[in-house]
Design brief:
InterPro entries: ClpP/crotonase-like_dom_sf, ECH/Chromodomain_protein, Enoyl-CoA_hydra/iso. GO terms for molecular function: delta(3)-delta(2)-enoyl-CoA isomerase activity. It comes from Mycolicibacterium chubuense (strain NBB4). It is found in: Peroxisome. The structure is a single chain. The chain is of the alpha/beta class and 251 residues long. It has a single domain, classed as 2-enoyl-CoA Hydratase, Chain A, domain 1 (Alpha-Beta Complex), CATH 3.90.226. It is 49% helix and 17% strand. It contains eleven helices and ten strands. A six-stranded mixed sheet has the order 1-2-3-5-7-10, with helices on both faces. Strand 2, helix 1 and strand 3 form a beta-alpha-beta unit.
Length: 251
């Protein structure tokens, strides 16, 4: 099972569960997460959604081996459930908390732009590897990250393809609280349960009033990013990076 789902005290916890692949997102996990987010949105007994990862990673991003295979066989051009998950994140009407327990790479970082609260382990690190992979940003990160952490912090994350540790992520403002590894989930859950004790219609109203002004910007950024991504995907820099990662020569 690529996604573990549990409920406690009106908090629905989603655990990314591909630990052998460092919780990298394949098509199955994208769809499972999108479905779980939409189910949580529709469930009157769920007030808050908490996302974390199994094992030593939060998420190592997109499954590059699957990505390379789908580019080679032409199926990637038909679309990805990546978009399905991003739409579900953008539309989630209830508070979203992310507990970053380990490395967050690519979507493991950009998903945080949709979180209302981010808790991060002292041992966790973040990276947006787009320039090292020869591709464009994703998940409206070119819009959401400057809004969240300021233009220069976002520029470094998106342009450098360098790691950012938990202390730096906290300084930037992408992590709300940094916790010792053993305290991460208990602390995130404690805060989730505070929110979950409140009126769900009120939580939804507050979140909507916060997020509504950003919806048009998210949609426009997604369109821009997708156009650049498709242009660069499979190009020389991207093919070389994927081949180096997977140990396979580009065809």
């Amino acid at each position: 099972m690529t996604l573990q789902i549990s409920d406690e005290n009106r908090v629905r916890t989603l655990v990314l569960n591909r630990p052998d692949a460092l919780n990298a997102f394949n098509e199955e996990l994208y769809l499972a997460t999108a479905t779980a987010l939409r189910d949580a949105a529709d469930d009157p007994e769920v007030a808050v959604v908490l996302i974390t990862g199994a094992g030593r990673a939060f998420s190592a991003g997109n499954d590059l081996k699957e990505m390379q295979t789908r580019i080679a066989d032409g199926s990637y051009a038909e679309g990805s459930h990546f978009s399905t998950m991003i739409e579900a994140l953008a539309e989630l009407p209830k508070p979203l908390i992310c507990a970053v327990n380990g490395v967050g790479l690519g979507i493991g970082t950009t998903i945080l732009g949709y979180a209302d609260l981010v808790f991060m382990s002292t041992t966790a690190r973040l990276k947006c590897p787009f320039t090292s992979l020869g591709v464009a940003p994703e998940a409206a990160s070119s819009y959401l990250l400057p809004q969240l952490i300021g233009r220069q912090n976002a520029a470094w994350l998106l342009l450098s393809s360098e790691w950012v540790d938990a202390a730096e992520a906290h300084r930037m403002g992408i992590a709300w609280k940094v916790c010792e590894p053993d305290d991460l989930l208990p602390d995130a859950r404690r805060h989730a349960e505070v929110l979950a004790s409140r009126s769900i219609p009120s939580l939804i109203a507050v979140k909507q009033t916060i997020t509504e002004p950003y919806r048009a910007g998210i949609a426009a950024a997604t369109e821009r990013e997708n156009a650049h991504f498709q242009q660069l995907l499979g190009g020389a820099a991207n093919a070389a990076a994927l081949a180096e990662f997977t140990g396979q020569r580009p065809s």
